[in-house]
Amino acid sequence: MNNQSKSSFFSAIAIEAAVVGILVILVVITLQFFNVINIPLLSFVNNKPKEVAKPTVNKIVKIRKSGQECEMFKPKRKIYTILPQASVSAKLKPFSGVWEGKWNGQVKSVLIVNTIDNKKATASYYFRSPPTTRLTLLVQPDGKTLKDEKGETSWEIDNGGFLVGTQIRGPQRSMVSMVKCTPSITNNNNDTE
Predict the structure, then answer these.
(1) Count of domains observed in the chain
(2) CA spacing 20 to 30 A to 96: which of 8, 105, 134, 193?
(3) Whole-angstrom Cα distance, residue 59 to residue 88?
């Protein structure tokens, strides 16, 4: 082999090696992008916000049966809810009533869904102490989820009949699992709320 053919041969090998190297780099970047591999030097590829770990939901509440007497909520007067009309979707009717649970298994709260129709629900919300606020919850397009007007908190009844609330504020995510309960009156005052 003469010098010129040796030079052409080595040039072809160098070009081939460069092409293979570029292909390997593209494959690695693609795998990093789809989270198949994790190479810290390529962290610029995954500029997606990291998912916040889901907090554990209070498992003690899930042991109780729905409809039992409320443990946390002891009102001083009767609580009235208006039964949903027949035209209200079967997926939405179960929301009506009194629900109690603990956010992230720690902070006591009660949601009283006073009225519900196919577009919205009105509710009283007790967070740590009664009553914190009155809410309008909007029925979402899926027909089985309620969301507050700010769009931060959503409510859905899971397959076990528990009301699951999820609140997302910026990077923070909180969850609650609530059980439907029947409040007992703490005194003889029978006034309406």
Answers:
(1) 2
(2) 105
(3) 31
